[in-house]
Amino acid sequence: METLPNPDIPATDAADDGDREPTPAEIESWERETVFVSGDEATAEEFPRLWNMSAGFTKRAIVRPTVPQPPEYVTITLPRPQVRDDQLLRRSLAVHEWNQLWEAAQFRRRFFDEEEDLTPDLARIADRGDVNIIFVPRTTSRYYEYAPLYHLLDRRTCERFGLPLLGRGQWPFGMEFVDIGKYLSDDFERRLSQAWASTVWRHLDSGSGLAAFRRDEPIRLLAHNLDYWIPPVTAVIQDTLRDFPLVKGDGDLPAEIRLIDGSVLDGAVPGWPRTGGDLWRGQQ
Fold first, then answer.
1. Is 229 helix (H, G, I), strand (E, B) or coil?
2. How far out from the chain centre does Cα 217 lie?
3. Sheet with 169-170: strands ordered across
4. What is the pLDDT of residue 171?
5. How far is residue 280's CA from residue 147's CA, in Å, rounded to a whole number?
6. Domain locations in the chain as residue ranges
7. Nearest alpha carbon to residue 235 among 107, 72, 104, 101
8. 163: which of 8, 104, 191, 283 is 20 to 30 A away, CA to CA?
9. Which element (helix H / strand E) includes 106?
10. Which residue has the higher pLDDT, 213 or 61?
11. Nearest to 169 by CA among 188, 192, 152
């Protein structure tokens, strides 16, 4: 994964009882309710859960590549949600819109004016050409990089390995309203690696348990390697979403996509965006 540097994030001020500013304790209470689910809520019918937001909320039509490139995750440092700044808000919204266009894959940069819509660091990524990039926030816990894997673990596995019960995840990342990193332990990645290995092990070796293999043996290293598992899980997510219904607008779409200079964009066709919704919900 690649990491880009960056500043601090904006957010609106919370309000309570008119113009009274919420206390730090009230803010933390709201944030915890936003981030975590209680044991009563983490039922087999509701936990785990991962969902997707449709680009149809902001785009009438999209560019759909005939051969989508596999996505590459690029980690960026997002500003803290409490910081107010118009430039940073523009950046946060740009990341949200960029990621929403997952169906456009390597052509998503063509929806943006690099000078007006993107901040300089994002524009440098767009300047690389038609590459399929998904932005995820960089945190010490690395939750966002591995969220699709976490949100495949059932409650029992999370509790066994000391992982918190987090609310529904979103793919791809949209916008951060709470600094989730401050509520997760620094060893979140290690715990997730152990929990993931225990989950997939029965699919790798049905005869012997993990303890039967040395820590440096390839099959054991493979089971724990979260970076290895993210691409195939991402592929499954996209295959699932491609079966979602289309959000059809009025009229017909053109047969081809013409660029500003009049040329045709090779390898792409116009398309209606797909609906969003739950990718999975519940243990089964």
1. helix
2. 31
3. 169-170, 49-52, 277-281
4. 97
5. 13
6. 2-14+22-248
7. 72
8. 8
9. none
10. 61
11. 152
